């Protein structure tokens, strides 16, 4: 409506029209989106995190599991385990704009901090495919451990961490050379992995031993082992690095780990079969894909309670499935350049008064 008003008065009051158009564009800017892979439906459900509703369903390859959104929030990369490829989704249009062939049974996917490379774990091939996101082509293939599953890249983009289920370890890839820099023994059947924002620690969810291995990335050694719920899969660290959230698939909950002490400080009941977990860029809500329950739980991290759930058939969503940059930290008060509806009403009223005044002056002159 505001855009139509702007068009109608643009000839008389160009500045006013510009202000109204700016308001319309500001109002249209929404919250980040969560991209939830639907394994049996071969599609991705797009959740608007402002309203916690599914706003689009995007067909992808066969058996999508892993998903990652680039830091700019412009593209989502989906690993399709049964079609051996990666679907690249444009966030602006909710359509697949590229399909990239990779290795056998791709599962996990992660991007570097610059969004220039995507790293895809090929579970059956025991390799990682490196995709140049500028060309959507594989530029390197890195051998890793047996039956790899999850992957995370540090914020600097210098190292990637790959969980190897068959060898119970984590392969550390030097991103500059695409070679293996270290192999770190962890718990039994490691699956999910996440790196804190500082890049100093990696958190590995061990599905077989029901614990989390904490790796010091400076020394590539395990410095803590944290017992969690049964059969954990996904793990995510909040933007402050203060908490790690672990999806315990066997016990239907999320374990919250305080990273300062490496202890569980809360256990949140979600639904049956939690699989993937991610925290929104603002660090206010965690989203948990519950595979068996067929929904996504939304957790308020301030209270560690589930506030709502969103229906999605067999959601998996392993990885950083919520995109966009974190909001700027609080600073001194500034004047918002985008006018509010009240501002626009005052501007319109002033314009009408001015027009009436001009009309009366012209009428008085004509009578003279």
Protein model, in words:
It is a single chain. The chain has 368 residues and is mainly beta. The chain folds into 2 domains: 2-26 and 339-367; 33-311, YVTN repeat-like/Quinoprotein amine dehydrogenase (Methylamine Dehydrogenase, Chain H, 7 Propeller), CATH 2.130.10.10. It is built from 3 helices and 27 strands. It has helices spanning 2-9, 14-28, 341-367, and strands at residues 33-38, 43-48, 53-59, 64-69, 75-80, 85-90, 95-101, 106-111, 117-122, 127-132, 137-143, 148-153, 159-164, 169-174, 179-185, 190-195, 201-206, 211-216, 221-227, 232-237, 243-248, 253-258, 263-269, 274-279, 285-290, 295-300, 305-311. A 4-stranded antiparallel β-sheet has the order 4-5-6-7, with no helix packed on it. Strands 8-9-10-11 form a 4-stranded antiparallel β-sheet, with no helix packed on it. A 4-stranded antiparallel β-sheet has the order 12-13-14-15, with no helix packed on it. Strand 1 (33-38) and strand 2 (43-48) form a beta hairpin. Helix 2 (14-28) packs antiparallel against helix 3 (341-367). Mean pLDDT is 87; it is low at 1-29 and 325-337.
In short:
This protein has helices at 2-9, 14-28, 341-367, and strands at residues 33-38, 43-48, 53-59, 64-69, 75-80, 85-90, 95-101, 106-111, 117-122, 127-132, 137-143, 148-153, 159-164, 169-174, 179-185, 190-195, 201-206, 211-216, 221-227, 232-237, 243-248, 253-258, 263-269, 274-279, 285-290, 295-300, 305-311. The protein has 368 residues and is mainly β. The two termini are 42 Å apart.
């Amino acid at each position: 409506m505001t855009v139509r008003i702007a068009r109608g008065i643009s000839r008389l009051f160009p500045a006013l029209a510009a202000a109204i158009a700016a308001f319309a564009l500001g109002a249209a800017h929404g919250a980040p989106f969560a991209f939830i892979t639907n394994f049996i439906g071969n599609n991705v459900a797009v959740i608007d995190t402002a309203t916690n509703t599914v706003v689009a369903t995007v067909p992808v390859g066969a058996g999508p599991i892993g998903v990652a959104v680039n830091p700019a929030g412009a593209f989502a990369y989906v690993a399709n385990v049964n079609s051996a490829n990666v679907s690249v989704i444009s966030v602006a249009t909710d359509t697949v704009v590229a399909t990239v062939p990779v290795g056998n049974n791709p599962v996990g996917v992660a991007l570097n901090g610059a969004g220039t490379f995507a790293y895809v774990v090929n579970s059956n091939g025991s390799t990682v495919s490196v995709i140049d996101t500028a060309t959507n082509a594989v530029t390197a293939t890195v051998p890793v451990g047996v039956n790899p599953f999850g992957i995370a890249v540090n914020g600097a983009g210098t190292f990637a961490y790959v969980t190897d289920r068959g060898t119970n370890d984590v392969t550390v890839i030097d991103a500059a050379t695409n070679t293996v820099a270290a192999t770190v023994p962890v718990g039994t059947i490691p699956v999910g992995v996440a790196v804190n924002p500082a890049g100093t620690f990696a958190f590995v969810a061990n599905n077989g031993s029901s614990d989390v291995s904490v790796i010091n990335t400076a020394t590539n050694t395990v410095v803590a082992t944290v017992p969690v719920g049964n059969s954990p899969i996904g793990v995510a660290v909040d933007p402050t690095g203060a908490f790690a959230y672990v999806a315990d698939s066997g016990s239907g909950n999320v374990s919250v780990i305080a990273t300062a002490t490496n202890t569980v400080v809360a256990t949140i009941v979600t639904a049956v079969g939690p699989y993937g977990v991610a925290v929104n860029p603002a660090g206010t809500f965690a989203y948990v894909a519950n595979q068996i329950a067929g929904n996504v739980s939304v957790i308020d991290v301030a209270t560690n309670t589930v506030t709502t759930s969103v229906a999605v058939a067999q959601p998996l969503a392993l990885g950083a499935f919520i995109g966009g940059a974190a909001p700027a930290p609080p600073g001194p008060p500034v004047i918002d350049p985008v006018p509010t509806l009240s501002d626009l009403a005052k501007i319109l009223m002033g314009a009408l008064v001015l027009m009436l005044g001009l009309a009366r002056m012209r009428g008085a002159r004509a009578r003279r």
